[in-house]
Design a protein that fits this description.
- The termini are far apart.
- This protein has one domain.
- Helix 4 packs antiparallel against helix 5, helix 4 runs parallel beside helix 6 and helix 5 runs antiparallel to helix 6.
- By secondary structure, it is mostly helical.
- The model has no long low-confidence stretch (mean pLDDT 87).
- Keywords: Membrane, Transmembrane, Transmembrane helix.
């Protein structure tokens, strides 16, 4: 409970409501768009699980920073969900784009997109690692923590999503 109190320490009710509405609207809009473009419940389920895992990993990351590393959680940490959502939605968007382009091909199987999803996940992991390495040298310590949590939570979620896709995209 101390973590939640630290995060919400200097926030007004308006900021809390607007932040919640922003994150929920991004999540809901993304899921609706994914369903409209794919019209496939398995891809929607995979995307929903991916976004839920992302939020859980972000919470765990902030908890670790606050309780174990003893770094004070401030309002700068509000950007973590937005950055992480941007990274994960780009990964899911690539998956959706590949699915949309190949779904009408002759002999298409949903399991065939896993191979392309693996390639894209590797590319995005390398990109995020290079992004983190190149920017961490020039940032303040608190901004480094925010960027590190965003990148690590995104990479962990990308690979959990790939692992889960083995069971959903059969």
């Amino acid at each position: 409970m101390n973590l939640i109190e630290n995060v919400l320490q200097n926030w007004s009710s308006y900021e809390l409501i607007m932040e919640g509405i922003l994150i929920l609207s991004i999540l809901l809009t993304s899921l609706v768009a994914i369903y409209i473009f794919s019209k496939n419940r398995k891809i929607l389920a995979l995307s929903s699980i991916s976004l839920a895992v992302l939020m859980l990993v972000i919470f765990i990351g902030i908890f670790i920073v606050d309780s174990i590393l003893k770094i004070h959680v401030t309002e700068v940490f509000r950007t973590i969900p937005i950055l992480s959502l941007l990274f994960i939605l780009s990964n899911l968007g690539i998956l959706l784009g590949f699915y949309t382009s190949k779904k009408k091909a002759k002999g298409f199987k949903l399991s065939s997109i896993r191979r392309e999803f693996l390639k894209d996940s590797i590319k995005q992991t390398v990109f995020l690692a290079l992004l983190g390495i190149s920017t961490l040298l020039f940032l303040s310590p608190q901004t480094e923590v925010v960027l590190s949590i965003s990148i690590l939570s995104s990479v962990v979620t990308i690979w959990i999503t790939y692992w889960i896709s083995r069971y959903i995209l059969k």
